[in-house]
């Protein structure tokens, strides 16, 4: 059952009945914009509200202790990456939890390992991949994805870029703070609901304009860049096809479940597997809507470092599968 089908019906009605658009390119672009703007906005409101509740009860000391325990070097990064694997989020929806991690004082590199692993290695790559690409390819992709997330987190931490996080954007009430403000008395459910709504809407309203900009860019590409154009350039087996796949995937927004059939179609048309995977991973990990949301939590220097490190990791995945498969 497609829970977003009513949104698609509404988008079709507005585009083709109310606006009366008959031009195929403009119709596709506007339809895409209306559908994705509504869908992502609703998802963000719901997810940000849930994350506000999560942050309120977040066991800060316990989680920080687990993720910063140095029993073995890289153990904290591995745990964060594995946590990203079991959270079925796309890049836009994993960002609120990332914000919760940073605001809890968990090291920046560790939170980035989670942020990258969450959309990169997920329920689609675990359960849908085997039926399309086989078990061996699935294990390889997910293993490399976890390694990429860990290495990217380590590199980000090495840069010591904590000062580039927007701390004002990360101020949310915890249960402890709410109790202190309430003179130590139990906070009523009504007050808690208000706190959660205010914190959730604080993020949603702050990032909504960036969501519209990102979706608008994706809509223009969706409507006016022919599929044959993408296939023509990505099917070339030169070294630059993988970076090109990353660049072409970034303006789009999709979760891995919806983009995997696209990857299957691309490989069926002769596009190398590694190039197709680079396109998919860029779409779910480095989408411009997600990056614009992330920009609210950090400055351009840190965001640029994230884009560069993650892009290199994605290209490693692409080149690996192109070379060996």
Word description of this protein:
The chain is an all-alpha fold. The chain has one domain. The chain is 76% helix and 0% strand. It contains 17 helices and no strands. The model has no long low-confidence stretch (mean pLDDT 77).
Describe what is shown at a glance:
Helices cover 76% and strands 0% of the residues.
Properties at a glance:
mainly alpha, globular, 325 residues
Secondary-structure blueprint of this entry?
Elements: H1 5-18, H2 24-56, H3 60-67, H4 75-86, H5 91-103, H6 108-120, H7 123-127, H8 129-133, H9 135-158, H10 175-181, H11 189-224, H12 227-234, H13 241-249, H14 256-268, H15 273-285, H16 288-295, H17 300-324
Give the helix/strand class.
mainly alpha
Span of the ends, CA to CA: 35 Å
Number of strands: 0
- Share in helix: over 70%
Poorly predicted parts? none
The largest sheet is:
none
Strand content: under 5%
Order of helices and strands: HHHHHHHHHHHHHHHHH
Estimated radius of gyration = 20 Å
The coarse silhouette is globular
Mean pLDDT: 77
């Amino acid at each position: 059952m497609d829970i977003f089908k009513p949104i698609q019906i509404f988008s079709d009605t507005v585009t083709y009945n109310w606006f009366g658009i008959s031009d195929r390119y403009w119709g596709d672009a506007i339809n895409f914009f209306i559908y994705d703007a509504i869908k992502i906005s609703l998802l963000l409101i719901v997810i940000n509200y849930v994350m506000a509740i999560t942050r309120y009860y977040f066991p800060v000391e316990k989680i920080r202790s687990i993720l910063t325990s140095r029993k073995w070097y890289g153990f904290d990064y591995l745990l964060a990456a594995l946590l990203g694997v079991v959270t079925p989020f796309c890049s836009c929806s994993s960002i609120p939890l990332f914000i919760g991690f940073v605001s809890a004082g968990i090291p920046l590199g560790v939170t980035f390992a989670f942020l990258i692993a969450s959309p990169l290695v997920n329920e689609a790559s675990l359960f849908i991949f085997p039926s399309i690409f086989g078990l061996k390819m699935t294990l390889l992709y997910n293993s490399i994805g976890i390694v990429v997330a860990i290495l990217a987190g380590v590199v980000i931490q090495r840069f010591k870029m904590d000062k580039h996080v927007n701390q004002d954007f990360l101020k949310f009430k915890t249960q402890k703070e709410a109790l202190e403000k309430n003179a130590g008395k139990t906070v009523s459910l009504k007050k808690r609901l208000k706190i959660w709504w205010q914190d959730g809407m604080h993020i949603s309203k702050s990032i909504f304009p960036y969501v519209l900009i990102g979706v608008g860019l994706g809509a223009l590409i969706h409507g006016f860049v022919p599929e044959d154009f993408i296939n023509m350039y990505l099917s070339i087996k030169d070294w630059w096809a993988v970076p090109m796949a990353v660049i072409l995937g970034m303006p789009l927004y999709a979760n891995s479940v919806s983009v995997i059939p696209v990857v299957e179609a691309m490989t069926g048309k002769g596009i190398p597997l590694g190039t197709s995977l680079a396109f998919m991973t860029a779409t779910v990990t480095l989408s411009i809507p997600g990056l614009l949301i992330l920009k609210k939590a950090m400055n351009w220097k840190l965001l640029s470092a994230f884009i560069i490190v993650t892009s290199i990791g994605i290209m490693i995945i692409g080149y690996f599968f192109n070379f060996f498969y």
